[in-house]
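Task 17 of the worksheet. Students: predict the tertiary structure of the chain below and write it out as structure tokens. Keep your answer in the requested format; marks are given for formatting as well as content.
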Amino acid sequence: MPGSSVVIVESPAKAKTINKYLGSDYTVLASYGHVRDLPPKDGSVRPEEDFAMDWELGERSKRHVDEISRAVKSADRVYLATDPDREGEAIAWHVKELLAQKRLLGKVDCKRVTFNEITKSAVQYAIAHPRDVNQELVDAYLARRALDYLVGFTLSPVLWRKLPGSRSAGRVQSVALRLVCERESEIEDFRPQEYWTIEAEFKTFDGQTFTARLTQLDGKRLEKFSLGDKGAAEAALARIRPMTFRVGRVERKEVRRNPYAPFTTSTLQQEASRKLGFGATKTMRTAQKLYEGVDIGGETVGIITYMRTDGVTLSAEAIDGARRMIGQSYGDNYVPEKPRIYKVAAKNAQEAHEAIRPTDLFRRPEQLSRYLDKDELRLYELIWKRTMASQMASAILDQVTVDIASKGAEAVFRATGSVVRFDGFLKVYQEDRDDDQEDEENRRLPNMKDGDDLTRGKLDANQHFTQPPPRYTEASLVKKMEELGIGRPSTYASILQVLQDRNYVRLEKRRFVPEDRGRLVTTFLESFFRRYVEYGFTAALEEKLDDISGGRIDWKQVLREFWMSFSTAVDGTKDLTITQVLDALDEALGPHFFPKKVGENGEEIDTRVCPTCGTGRLSLKLGRSGGFIGCSNYPDCRYTRPLSVGDEGDGGDRNLGQDPETGLPVWVKNGRFGAYVQLGEAEGKDGEKPKRASLPKGMNPADIDLDAALGLLSLPRLVGPHPETGEEILAGIGRFGPYLKHGSAYKNLGADDDVLTIGLNRAVHLLAEAPAKKAVAGRELGTHPKDGKPIKVGSGRFGPYVQHNKLFASIPKSMNADEVTLEQALELLAAKAAKDGTKKGATAKADDEEKPAAKKAAAPKRAATAKKAAAPKAAGTAKKAPAARKKASA
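Model answer:
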């Protein structure tokens, strides 16, 4: 078709939106993300060949690439309209390379277009102003991808060989994990220090009261630990009680607070975590939907700008729109004289995109409430308010400091407070904080002047203890990584998710807690690859990647310098023995797993003494399934316990008492998969296994008593009949943790609910939420065009899927199961059928070529061969390594 153009984007949602902005001469197709990647096997990046890289089409990409190729054959122009960042440039480059390999670009003009927002004007402007693919950004992508691959596929096998039970290692993930582990060590090493403060209540002549804190005593300024114990505090009280007080000095000053810059990727993730309780992954997934397009009254439009950005600037149109909106909504006094311009020190100007903002500020959140779901609306409202506030007038506060002195100035108290005189941007938005510092902004003090007499009221001495640094939240960890220059903000969500998926960390009360497996990995890397988990080294490497994308350094030179030292470090571990690894880990983690304890008489208790034999020394051991703690007298003493801290030193083999019904002993024990309670001895009558029940996550074995153990052993228990259906509600513990069961419906219990004590009302409330999770299951999408039978969406043990007859196809994580269409389902089912057909075809062909007689003859031969091959054990072990390496994940 003459004059036709093909526009290639990465997602079908984006394609659907853009397609409505362009005329009939444009065909908009989706690549469905990255069309190809490095094969997940050893040798995909070859340093010995100057870092030659192999690429392969993704499992589901061939169909999409074929569709794009067919469209390009009859087109005059191709526009690569993927996202305006390094990843988007990479996808555009991959698509262009594939089309070139197919010899489709000889007579076709292929250009790159970018837009920061998916609106009609922005898309049409981009099409009118195309450019070439930016090779410098592509080089930066290639360097980053090669680095991540080389670290993952070189370091992970070392971990598997030297630290059994560990998972893969990553260039940036390992450094983020170190942050979490180091913070945990700081908390464990922290020793609280006591200090006291003195507060007094004062009353003015007109009867108004306020409190103030003692800051000086007998001419000395009180520091934090000046009153270090109760005795010092009581002595200060005795000294102050007879004194009379008056206002010594009143200081007033005007304070201006300026608004915050509009959102970047990092600050959006931080604030969404603090204000909305969103994880980084959820924030980015929700923002992606708002960017790619929302149906608003029959029109699909992107309602925020691109959400992966380090920039804080706003376009002139956005600033003008914000100022007009502020004036209309809040009055002219909320509009500053000049527009606010924000700047960020970005070395790579090509990545300094506009900040995240609404594409049209006149779309107020309340106007969009009927078009967005709850999470989308909350995130949009957050972005809208932050953008508006960024262009509003400063808040003006009157800050007051009052010193209250005794007649002879022997004691001085101080009271501070602030009064908001003009709220400015605070009318719309105030940023949350991670700490719990006292906020005195809204504290108002009585009107006082120098020399006013005051009546002292209640006088209190308050005991305090210093607090350890808090564990990282998603917000504070993202902030710390950004401060250190580790990784890119656009990758933080995936980094934090990988750490959780590998069971290196867990989220507990929205804060990261390192698992013992994570601590082992971090300690191993710090002991033998310290340079590569140092914050400065990782940040410097990020700067080099920025230099590549800015055209200031050759990407292969960066790889050569990195690989020369990294490969040498890896080679240095070849002769490393398991004993050397254990010694290093035991020395570094000993204080964690064997903390110091003091007895009743003040004597120090050696927590490394084996509780079973009394003579052996406990230390870290490594087995096939990972690390554990064992006795040095093995095999005479077989005491073991999982890697854990606390009084499991008695091995968990603690007799809690007798079951009143059976008379059997009740034990709390530690097994291979964690702590559990047991009724009876190792084997009951007739060799029957004793009844056991696992401890729920978060329940300390040292805290288990007889009643709690019997409660666990009695599970599942009857909570009560459901008030609507009359069916029983049961509470129990399964392989995925505590749960509720009502008929065929199950509901997992969270950390705040106790499976042993949960009541009927709470259970009914939780079960009422269960259908929301089951919304995916049983939804019928339509009928198959070939046989007219239904295609359904379901949810199983391994996640959501689509089903047609007996064919099941998994729904990828990149798709929302609740939004899967019939067309997408047909694609997934066709791909699965083709894959299954290929496997069956290969098997059938092999069977046809093999005669029955040959089968019988070959069977013993294969068995003999297998038996013979199994004999040299060392060789067999060596052969497993390459296969295992294929599973490594960069």
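Marker's comment: DSSP finds 23 helices and 36 strands in the chain. The CA atoms of residues 99 and 105 lie 6 Å apart.
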